[in-house]
């Protein structure tokens, strides 16, 4: 199911805000840190209750490279306020048959490692980004395109960053994680072939920095499912919600 690992990926994106160092007279060539997050999640699958999961985090950053847990980004180009990054993201969406009676008799759905490109553009009224990633491990065999707008409110010791993301998931992704195959069909679980859909995510990240090393992170989001996910017989909710509380020590 989309639980521990999927929301762990969300934690890494929240940590990125927290790990940004304060402005120093001379920036270090690299930074790294260790942290732990507590994740509370409801992913919308039938008969799957909220989960509370501890997630360890390892962080490492140089001028062009950033590692956040299993995710990485490498800056390919930068021109004024425009950046181009090569990104890798571990997708742990999926479920095992034993996770719920809902999945009894179904084949497990596995996660994947996705690779792609991300373009970011900073303006005076917020940041815009576009990202395209595709399955590099031949699991769901799909791709995903997202557009994000965010704006940061920076104070002396803390930062608040609301954002809005539109994500277009391909037919292969939706069918793999939310579809029901012909040999999985039962009287209570109809055959379902997923098609491409668009999800809308609204969230906020908040970071409180204590000195140069201690960072406390809060991350809350709600994702409204597209119709092709909501119509799945595996889902009984119109969206998913996540709350993350975390701490990181940056060396």
Automatic annotation (TrEMBL):
<dbReference type="Pfam" id="PF06629">
    <property type="entry name" value="MipA"/>
</dbReference>
<dbReference type="InterPro" id="IPR010583">
    <property type="entry name" value="MipA"/>
</dbReference>
<keyword id="KW-0998">Cell outer membrane</keyword>
<keyword id="KW-0732">Signal</keyword>
<protein>
    <submittedName>
        <fullName>Structural protein MipA</fullName>
    </submittedName>
</protein>
<dbReference type="GO" id="GO:0009252">
    <property type="term" value="P:peptidoglycan biosynthetic process"/>
</dbReference>
<dbReference type="GO" id="GO:0009279">
    <property type="term" value="C:cell outer membrane"/>
</dbReference>
<keyword id="KW-0472">Membrane</keyword>
<comment type="similarity">
    <text>Belongs to the MipA/OmpV family.</text>
</comment>
């Amino acid at each position: 199911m989309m639980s521990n690992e999927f929301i762990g990926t969300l934690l890494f994106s929240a940590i990125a805000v927290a790990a940004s160092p304060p402005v120093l007279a001379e920036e270090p060539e690299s930074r790294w840190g260790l942290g732990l997050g507590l994740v509370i999640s409801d992913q919308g699958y039938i008969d799957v209750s909220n989960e509370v999961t501890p997630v360890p985090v390892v962080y490492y950053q140089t001028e062009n490279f950033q590692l956040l847990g299993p995710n990485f980004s490498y800056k390919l180009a930068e021109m004024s306020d425009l950046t181009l990054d090569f990104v890798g993201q571990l997708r742990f969406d999926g479920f095992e048959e034993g996770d719920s009676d809902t999945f009894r008799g179904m084949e497990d759905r596995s996660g994947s490692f996705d690779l792609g490109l991300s373009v970011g553009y900073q303006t005076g009224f917020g940041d815009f980004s576009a990202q395209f990633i595709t399955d590099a491990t031949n699991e769901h065999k799909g791709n995903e395109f997202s557009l994000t707008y965010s704006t940061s409110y920076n104070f002396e010791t803390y930062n608040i960053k609301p954002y809005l993301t539109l994500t277009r998931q391909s037919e292969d992704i939706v069918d793999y994680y939310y579809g029901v195959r012909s040999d999985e069909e039962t009287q209570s679980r109809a055959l379902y072939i997923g098609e491409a859909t668009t999800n809308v995510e609204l969230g906020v990240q908040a970071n409180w920095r204590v000195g140069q090393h201690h960072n406390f992170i809060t991350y809350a989001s709600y994702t409204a499912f597209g119709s092709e996910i909501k119509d799945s017989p595996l889902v009984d909710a119109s969206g998913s919600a996540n709350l993350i509380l975390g701490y990181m020590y940056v060396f």
